[in-house]
Amino acid sequence: MIGSTNGFQACTIDIMDFSDFPDDLTGPLVSGATKTAILASLSVTEGVTRILNPYLKPDVTELLSFLRLNGFRVSWNKEEIVICPPDVPVDIVTRDKVTVTLLSDLSEVITYLTLSILSGKKIRLHCDKIDNVISGLQAEITLFRRIGINIIHENKTLYAVAKPELSPCDVVVKSTSIYSDHQPFFALILCYARGLSNIEERVWKHRFSYAHELNKMGTDIGVFDGKICINPAVLNSEPQSVFAQDLRSAAVLLIAAIVRNGETIITGCEHLERGYTHLIENLSSLGVNIHYLQSNKKEIVA
């Protein structure tokens, strides 16, 4: 693909044009379209750029805050993002440095919370910009509460406290609800609920490859078009080999391998390298018996 331009100009972009549903902001293009529009607006030298019906998860609001630090006049709410060029053009070569602290990775937070919940071990997570983390995970925290899990935050740490019996839930994953990246973790948790749960995926509609692999370990998850049905079932301890097709599949299969107390070989775990920092080292420090089978980190035993 080759693209060219004679320059950027201010305009209005409606992100609903990229939604899979005409009356509901969701779909695989919504997040990327919002970020692309923001980045394109940085080359606009005159006028006002408006982005209507924007995706406003922390991966966008952190970017907008960074633009403010660099002199762009930026405001946003759920209806629109408004971006105006700096009063003085930004010279990225000679300008003073801008230092930014990003919030802790939300998917790492959900990963460790899931491990804590299913293992029954309290894991305290230290989070940078804890208030932003809590705000960014409001949909997940609300879902946890419906299931019977409270997320407690104190100072810069948070941890999970689960009730003895978890409640089943029906979940619709949208661009404005829990992250699509997080639905595999909730699927695994809901395997331990006391009744049938359903998860419908309206962002990445076929993101259920992990379900077939979890079923090898003893879960009972039915996979349909854009939806899974989760029947209560506990993981078994029989030796098993599974394959991870993507990053979050690798992570949720690794958690399942840890909590089921049976040897598991996971192929495709190289995906973990691009999504987690020191994951294997952190798990080992928690007492998990885990190691790579190959130097290329494509197989792991847990």
Account of the 3D structure:
By secondary structure, the chain is of the alpha+beta class. The chain is built from 9 helices and 15 strands. It has helices at residues 30-41, 58-69, 106-119, 130-136, 138-147, 183-190, 209-216, 247-259, 279-285; strands at 12-14, 49-52, 73-76, 80-84, 125-126, 149-154, 157-162, 170-173, 197-201, 220-224, 227-231, 240-243, 264-267, 291-292, 299-301. The strands form 4 sheets. A 4-stranded mixed β-sheet has the order 1-2-4-3, covered by helices on one side. β6 (149-154) and β7 form a beta hairpin. α3 (106-119) runs parallel beside α6, α3 runs parallel beside α8 and α7 packs parallel to α8 (247-259).
Q: Which features does this protein show?
A:
alpha+beta; four-stranded mixed β-sheet; 302 residues
Q: Unreliable stretches, pLDDT < 50, 5 or more residues?
A: none
Distance between the termini: 42 Å
The percentage of residues in β strands lies in: 15-25%
Biggest pleated-sheet summary: 4 strands, mixed
Q: Reading side by side through the largest sheet, how are the strands ordered?
A: 1-2-4-3
The helix content is 25-40%
Let me know the average pLDDT: 92
Label the structural class: alpha+beta
Task: Please count the helical segments.
Answer: 9
Task: Kindly provide the radius of gyration, computed on alpha-carbon positions and rounded to a whole number of angstroms.
Answer: 21 Å
Could you tell me the number of beta strands?
15
Instruction: Give, in order, the helices and strands.
Output: EHEHEEHEHHEEEHEHEEEHEHEE
Inertia-based shape = globular
